[in-house]
Amino acid sequence: MPSGPSDPAAPPFLDHLADDSARFRTVLADAPPGLRVPTCPDWDADDLIWHLAEVQWFWGEIAAGGLTTRADVDALDGRRVERPADRAGLLEHFDRSSSRLHAALAALDPATELWMWADEHTAGYIARRQAHEAMIHRLDAELTVGARTPLDCRLAADGVDEALRIMRGYEPEPGLTHEPVAGTVTIATVDAMHAWTVTPVRITGAYEGRQIDLRRFLVDDGPDDASAAEICGTAADLDCWLWNRPAAEAITREGEAAALAAVDAVLTDSID
Predict the structure, then answer these.
(1) Where is the Mycothiol-dependent maleylpyruvate isomerase metal-binding domain (predicted)?
(2) HSE-up of residue 92 (Cα within 13 Å, Cβ side)
């Protein structure tokens, strides 16, 4: 950790993308119309199918088209399909989108440059991101119908790394300042043999022409014996926790209440 698609120790992201997308479809194919998604209360089962189909369509367009600029990506809006009116149409759209995304990414060298909102603008990172997207929404689908199955430990551990470093992480940038708001906290897996130490910080300053005031993490690999607190669980449960999904088993939290509260504050702050 951190891992990436060119790292021989990285999970097989495209295999996970295919497997979790297929499980997602199987779980929701016969779900009753109007069945609510407990982890996304504003959605029903059809909304969840539409969401992942649209996400996979979007990134499939980028990968298949070799898009590298914001202007190229903005032009995709004119090619979006209208939402199908029935379950059969939604599943057809999902099947096309999912198949095209996988095929397009499989045909590219992971180092291929593509547009991406994150700092790593590669086909490999898109594969990594979409594997995690499919896994989390597969879990949403399973929770919707009451058929939860385990998350892959290795992929989930990589998901913890991505959530901490990319979704909730921060590296110093010009024009921004950061101040620690609490002591360090060690986040440790009990099954994947990995730990991270995070420092909750408040970030202020000017970014892309606007003033920001955010809570994020500075992230280091490994535990810190001097940490003010520790959070431990399986890789799958920690990944679920970081994405505001219910853990299957207990996550333990020990240490200073202020440090633990500072971690919670980062997780409730919005992601830009």
Answers:
(1) 15-141
(2) 9
220 neighbors 201 (Cβ within 8 angstroms):
no
CATH 1.20.120 fits 13-149, yes or no: yes
Q: Which residue shows structure tokens 């509260």?
A: 261
What does the pLDDT look like over 202-252, one tens digit per residue? Answer: 999 998 889 999 999 999 999 999 999 999 999 999 999 999 999 999 999
What would the pLDDT profile of 5-32 be if each residue is shown by its tens digit?
446 567 999 999 999 999 999 999 999 9
Task: Write out the two tokens for 28.
Answer: 């929701």
| CB burial readout 229-247, b (16+ within 10 A) else e | bbbbbbbbbbbbbbbebee
CB-CB contact of 49 with 28 (8 Å): yes
What would the pLDDT profile of 152-163 be if each residue is shown by its tens digit? 999 999 999 999
Determine the Cα–Cα distance for residues 14 and 103; give it in Å rounded to an integer: 9
Provide the strand spans (E) within the chain: 36-37, 40-44, 176-180, 185-189, 195-207, 210-221, 229-233, 252-255
Let me know how long the chain is: 272
The reported pTM is 0.93
Structure tokens at 147: 């058929």
Q: Are 121 and 108 in contact (CB under 8 A)?
A: no
Q: What is the CATH number of domain 155-268?
A: 3.30.1050
Rounded to the nearest 5 degrees, what angle is found at the Cα of 109, between the Cα atoms of 103 and 113? 100
Instruction: Please state, in angstroms and rounded to a whole number, the distance separating the CA atoms of residues 270 and 272.
Output: 6
Name the token pair of 172.
Answer: 């110093």
Task: Kindly state the tokens that stand for 12.
Answer: 């097989």
Helices and strands, number each (H, E), in the chain: 8, 8
Q: Where are the domains of the chain?
A: 13-149, 155-268
From CA 198, how far away is CA 188, in angstroms rounded?
11
